[in-house]
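Quick one:
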Amino acid sequence: MLTGLRWALILPAAWAGWSLALILGIGAHSLLEKLCPKDQVVSGMCVAPWFSYAEKAVFCGGAAVAAALIVLFTTLVAPGHRPTVALLAFTLGCVGASYMAVAADAYAELATAVVVGLLVTWWLRTRPWRHESRNIGSERGWRRRTRP
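Output:
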């Protein structure tokens, strides 16, 4: 029962990771707008020469956080086959990010998301816990040990 629930929670976990990254990105952008000098705000928009670069960095950072959280959350929620789940989350995330990048002409953000997502996927796939689906909890003594 719990295993089925955890499999069902994979998509909500991906959504939660993306939503959290979106909230953090909006917060970072709001903070960036507050840093703009008042004399360089025209019609509510910052026209400082440094602002477009900082804004692009915030957008790329948000895409990176989204990629990392989506892969991480889905992998941690999965009850087994975690290396496969990490790779699948990365692959489907690349498809979704590519669609959004084409729609928004955001190719730097796409590149950032792909690189960070790939690094997180690689890191998760090399963790020792990736074999836990075969022998859950045996390393911590959660199962009763049998006598030799």
